[in-house]
């Protein structure tokens, strides 16, 4: 397996731009890593790196070779996983991207439980409210709200009934004028979610046949969904959040739904992958696990809202 080790070292060196860093990560000496790369260069017949005292960079041939090496290593990893899974031993790595609020306050605990159930599965979690480019990053699955703009993606529903809800802390509700209609929101401090330079301050609501768009204002906004939620918990104002994101807060009585007769926008929750080939056995097991967790959480918060 010497050739495989050398390819792995090459991919890692290209990723980190340093033999020393690779040596530290792989418990080797920089000289051993350099010698391995040199052997690989002799075998392929062209230089892979340009080495200077300050930096390590790929040659043109090295960049082309890296693309094939990364794909080959991925195929080999999948082969090892397939063999283990065929033996009934679920094993492998899952790279998950998720929104900040959902990731920190629900998904993190669920992943902890999942890895306790499956000792040989590791999960890498990346949290961001920006939509990750699944074609350029090594992400296996992404958790996303709402309809997908890219029809080529594979989207598996986790919670189709999820909607946005207006909510605030009991303290805020107690100390501010009552809200009986969406137009009353104009007199309140509303905390908006912000993406880049766009503030989402147009809140769409529906009650039977009546539709309203409230143009809200407030002293606070944030580009992190978890920060928006935390501001609401501090009693700073009203938020328009995904029900799943605030589900535990509503169950615990830390947030209360405002305008209960009005329904917010539908924001179904999906598990997304770029290609159906990524739906490996461990991904399918993780999918079923997440669907069960989301279903259970949604039932609990629905019961809390109906009491």
Automatic annotation (TrEMBL):
CDD domains: PBP2_CrgA_like
Domain of life of the organism encoding this protein: Bacteria
Record domain HTH lysR-type: where: 1-59
GO biological process assignments: DNA-templated transcription
Alphabetized Gene3D superfamilies for the sequence: 3.40.190.290, Winged helix-like DNA-binding domain superfamily/Winged helix DNA-binding domain
Keyword terms of this UniProt record: DNA-binding, Transcription, Transcription regulation
UniProt cross-references to SUPFAM superfamilies, sorted A to Z: Periplasmic binding protein-like II, Winged helix' DNA-binding domain
One MF annotation (Gene Ontology) recorded for this entry: sequence-specific DNA binding
PANTHER family for the chain: HTH-TYPE TRANSCRIPTIONAL REGULATOR (PTHR30537), HTH-TYPE TRANSCRIPTIONAL REGULATOR SINR-RELATED (PTHR30537:SF21)
Similarity-based family: Belongs to the LysR transcriptional regulatory family.
Protein's name in the database: LysR family transcriptional regulator
Biological source species: Vibrio nereis
